[in-house]
Amino acid sequence: MIMPAPAAFKSLIQSEPGWETLEAELQHDNPYVQIYRLRERTPSRPDGVSWTLAHRKSATVIAPMTADGRLLLIRQERVPIHATLWEFPAGQIDDPNAPDAILDTARRELREESGYELPPGGEMIPLGVYYSSPGFTDEHCHLFLARGVIPSAGGMKLDENEAIHEARPFTLEEVRRMIAGNEIRDANTLAAFARMTALGLI
Questions:
Q1: Cα–Cα distances in Å, from 118 out to 8, 99, 179?
Q2: How many other CB atoms are there within 10 angstroms of residue 178's CB atom?
């Protein structure tokens, strides 16, 4: 079925000049991912080029930091790679058109996945956007540093498909060693840590 490109493709980011989706054929659809065969006009290919796109919702990634400067990591099972990874909390933005959708999602995922929250006076610092794998998916993640987190009264509230074993604070030096030793392998966590380092926040 050939159709115009869904508006959701660019719901929270803007295309640069010279890009246009000419055709979009939906090949697979479920609640988590849609696969499209596209015909795309690009700045160097005005006649268009064919491409396969895995469309996913935008997401937030939250680097939680306690008042004493430790970073909170969760240990989560990841089915596609048959491994349990240390990660920062993250989650998809269900309704990008809702007021404050990005920030509200970040606060929700922090609370649900880690069992921590920002108290009054805590800071949710935007760190920008990154693309998880732009060769095949339009998925993009909004990065945040949540500074001053404390345990929430309700603890974790996981979705039925999530398996998070624990949430634990680590010193910055411990996190650096985990990255250097390939113990932290999650792209979201590596991207957020790199952005915080580049901005001089850690």
A1: 30, 20, 26
A2: 17
Query: Does residue 1 carry a pLDDT above 50?
Result: no
Quickly state the pLDDT bin for 14 (edges 50, 70, 90).
confident
Task: Give me the DSSP letters along 75-128.
Answer: EEEEGGGTEEEEE--EEE-S-TTSTTHHHHHHHHHHHHHHSEEPPTT-EEEEEE
Is residue 145 domain-shared with residue 51, that is, in the same domain?
no
Number of domains in the chain: 2
CATH, residue 74:
3.90.79.10
Q: What confidence tens digit (pLDDT) does each residue in 113-159 have? A: 999 999 999 999 999 999 999 999 999 999 999 999 999 998 888 87
Backbone angles phi, psi at 159, to 5 degrees: -70, 160
Dihedral through CA 77, CA 79, CA 83, CA 87, nearest 10? -50
